[in-house]
Every structure is written in structure tokens, then in C-alpha cells.
Amino acid sequence: MLRGDKVGLRARHEDDIPVLLTELHDDVANASRSSTDPWRPISPGAKEPGLSLDHTNEAHVRFSVVDLDDGALLGSASLWGIDNHNRLAHIGLELRPSARGKGYGTDVVAVLCHYGFDVRGLRRLQIETLADNPAMLRAAERNGFVREGVLRSAAWVMGEFVDEVVLGLLVEDRQAG
Ligand SMILES: CC(C)(COP(=O)(O)OP(=O)(O)OC[C@H]1O[C@@H](n2cnc3c(N)ncnc32)[C@H](O)[C@@H]1OP(=O)(O)O)[C@@H](O)C(=O)NCCC(=O)NCCS
């Protein structure tokens, strides 16, 4: 397990899946803000990569996030689009509603940076988030990510186009910080 100050990132367990399905995926508004794909229902037990134990895609590493104090499930996190030629990858995370706003997200980003840079030897990590997601923007910036640009009206979210912000962190920025 990867450890931060408050959170652990471990492999997905079978009994995580119904919780993540109910609290994250089945909240259509939330799920639509966290994915660039259109929302659609997922049946219990379906072989849906995001919510299954399927680890066959080597470019996408999925973790369950747990509280280091008691092991409680807090959410889901991933390093995706891992590109070993250009040595970059993207970060994604989603916490259960009851786990938000308590500093866990900032710690998850730190642990994903440790995994990307130290364990996987990557040079660049990237986060894309909606411009109206202050918690994600702040969790990224607290870890040294810088805003590199705005993709205007890049995301269709529940009836409107929303700007997307691209943030990046290079390994040398992190070493300097
Ligand atoms: C985005 C998310 C991962 C952030 O994690 P979190 O644990 O809630 O965030 P933290 O508690 O670490 O807070 C990070 C910063 O944002 C601020 N913040 C938290 N919630 C906020 C809110 N609703 N509005 C404004 N600022 C907020 C915190 O004060 C903190 O700032 P500080 O370090 O200056 O004090 C989490 O809220 C979440 O899962 N949201 C739903 C899914 C989602 O949006 N995922 C990201 C998709 S790209």
C-alpha cells in the first residue's frame, strides 16, 4: 500500500465496488463532472474497468483510497494515460461525499505524485479539471501543480459547456519545491 499523511492507496477490493457505484457513479451530476464520457448506468457485477478488479490496462492504474487510521474506504484514485515514452501520466480522483473537504484530496494528490515520479519514474504529471472545481484546483496547487492553460468550453456537463483547466507538475519543480 502507498501511504501519505492521512490516506492509503491500495488495490481495489470486491466490497469497495458497490460503495463506489452507489456513492460516486450513481450520482449522475457528480459522475458527469468527473468524466469526459457521457454518463450511463452500470449494472451491479458488470465488468466495467473503472469499477471492477480488472487490471489488464497497464496504462491505467486504479487505487481505492482508505483512511490510514481505520482503513475506511474514502474513494477512488488513478494514474491514467501512462505514457512511458514521453514519461507522463494524468491524475484522477473522486472521494465519497462524506470524505470531501477534510484534506484527504490534497494528500491523495501527494501520494499519486510519489507513485508517478518515484515509483514509476515519470517526469510530468497532469491534471485536467473543470474551472468551477475549486477543491480540485486547490488540492493540485497545494502540491505544486501550476495552471498551464484553459481549454475553453471543452466539457459538456449536464446541459452546459464548461471550461477545463490543465495543470502540470514536472519532477524538477517538485524537487525544487
Ligand atoms: C475534488 C476533491 C478530490 C478534492 O478533495 P478534498 O478532500 O475535498 O479537498 P481538500 O479537503 O484536500 O481541500 C483542498 C483545498 O480546497 C479547499 N476546498 C475544499 N472544498 C472546497 C469547496 N467546496 N469550495 C472551495 N474550496 C474548497 C480546501 O479548503 C483546501 O484549500 P486549502 O488547502 O487552502 O485549505 C473532492 O472534493 C472530490 O472528490 N470531489 C468530487 C469529485 C471531483 O470533483 N473529482 C475531481 C475530478 S477532476
Mean pLDDT reading: 95
Low-confidence sequence ranges: none
Q: What is the number of beta strands?
A: 8
Which radius of gyration do the C-alpha atoms yield? 16 Å
Spatial order of the strands forming the largest sheet: 1-2-3-4-5-6-8-7
CATH architecture title: 3-Layer(aba) Sandwich
CATH topology: Aminopeptidase
Number of domains: 1
Fraction of residues in β-strands: 35-45%
Percent of residues in helices: 25-40%
- Cα shape: globular
By secondary-structure content and strand pairing, the structural class works out as alpha+beta
| Distinct ligands, ions and cofactors found in the model | coenzyme A
| CATH class descriptor name | Alpha Beta
The secondary-structure element order is EEHHEEEHEHEEH
Largest sheet descriptor: 8 strands, mixed
By DSSP (H or I, 4+ residues per run), the number of helices equals 5
Distance between the termini: 25 Å
CATH-level-4 superfamily name: Gcn5-related N-acetyltransferase (GNAT)
How do the strands and helices of this protein lay out in sequence?
Elements lengths: L1 E2 L3 E4 L6 H9 L2 H7 L26 E7 L5 E11 L4 E8 L8 H16 L4 E7 L3 H9 L3 E12 L2 E11 H6 L1
Parallel strand pairs: 5-6
Antiparallel strand pairs: 1-2, 2-3, 3-4, 4-5, 6-8, 7-8
Bound molecules: coenzyme A.
Question: Can you tell me about this structure?
Answer:
The protein has a single domain (2-176), classed as Gcn5-related N-acetyltransferase (GNAT) (Aminopeptidase). The two termini are 25 Å apart. β4 and β5 (88-95) form a beta hairpin. Strands 1-2-3-4-5-6-8-7 form an eight-stranded mixed sheet. The model has no long low-confidence stretch (mean pLDDT 95). It has helices at 17-25, 28-34, 104-119, 134-142, 171-176; strands at residues 2-3, 7-10, 61-67, 73-83, 88-95, 124-130, 146-157, 160-170. The protein contains five helices and eight strands; from the N terminus they run ββααβββαβαββα. The site of coenzyme A has 21 residues, from α2, β5, α3 and α4. Residues 30, 33-34, 93-95, 100-106, 129, 133-136, 138-139, 142 line the site of coenzyme A.
